[in-house]
Amino acid sequence: MLFRSDLVNRLMTFRLDVAWRRRAVADLRLPRNSRVLDLASGTGDLCIELDRQGHLPVSVDFSFGMLRADHRSGAPRVQADVCRMPFASGIADGVTCGFALRNFVDLGAFFDDVARVVRPGGRIALLDACEPENRLLRWGHGLYFQRIVPKIGGLLSNRSAYQYLPKSLAYLPPAPQMLTRLEHAGFASVERALLFGGAAQLITDR
Fold first, then answer.
1. What is the chain's alpha carbon radius of gyration, rounded to the nearest angstrom?
2. Tell me, what's the pLDDT at 140?
3. How far apart are CA 73 and CA 152, in angstroms?
C-alpha cells in the first residue's frame, strides 16, 4: 500500500518517478549483491528498486519518523546526518539519493562525505527535480508545479509541502557548479542526464 505522500508523487509525475528510480539504479552499473547506501531515503522507494535489481541497500535518513514509516523495504535502516555519516571510509559500492539534493544546507559537505564512504571505483546516482532549459517547457513546468501540484497535494496530503516543492528548486546550484563540486570531492567523470524534457535530472559518475 502506498503512503499518502508517495501516492501524490505518483500522481503528479504520472508515475514517471518510478521509471526514473529504475533508471537511477540501473545506471549505477554495479554487479549484483553490491552494497548501496540510499541517502535521505524517505519512505524507501529507492531501496525497493535497489533490492529488486539485486543489490544490498542500506536506508539512511536524518528523520527517525521517515525511517519508521518505511514499512516496505527490508533494508537495514540507519538514522544519521548524511553529511557526516557514521560509516567507515570506502564501505559502500555505491550511493543513491532521490529528490533530496535541494534540501541540503551544505551540498558540498554532502558530496565530500559521499566520496568518502564510496570505495574507489564505486558509483553514484543522484536523482532530483529540475527546471527544463527550453523556455516553453519551463513555462509549462512552472505553471503545473506552481498551480496544479499544490492543489493535488492539498486534496490528498499536505498542501504547504507541495507549495514548497517548486520553490525548493531555487536552492539547487546551477548544474555546472554542482558537477564541478562533485569533481572536487573526488568523482573524476560525472555526467548529468535530463529526464522527461528536463523535469528531472540524474547525476552519475562513470
1. 16
2. 66
3. 26
- Give, as one character, the DSSP assignment of residue 30: -
Beta strand 35-39 with 56-61: parallel, antiparallel or unpaired?
parallel
* Per-10-residue mean pLDDT, the chain, length 206: 52 72 97 97 91 96 87 84 97 96 93 98 94 75 66 60 62 92 95 90 94
- Nearest 5°: CA angle at 185, between 181 and 187? 95
Q: Which of 135, 138, 46 is nearest to 95 (CA)?
A: 46
Distance from C-alpha of 107 to C-alpha of 171, rounded to nearest angstrom? 10
SS3 132: coil
Spatial separation of the C-alpha atoms in residues 195 and 20, rounded to whole Å: 8
Phi/psi at 23 (5° precision)? -65, -40
CA 192, CA 204: separation in Å to the nearest integer? 7
- The DSSP bridge partners found for residue 78 are 60
Check: CB of residue 59 under 8 Å from CB of residue 41. Answer: yes
Q: What is the pLDDT of residue 2?
A: 44
Query: CB burial class (10 A; 0-12, 13-18, 19+) of residue 204?
Result: buried
Burial class of residue 131 (count of CB atoms within 10 Å of its CB; 0-12, 13-18, 19+): middle
- Residue 111, C-alpha cell as written in the block: 558530496
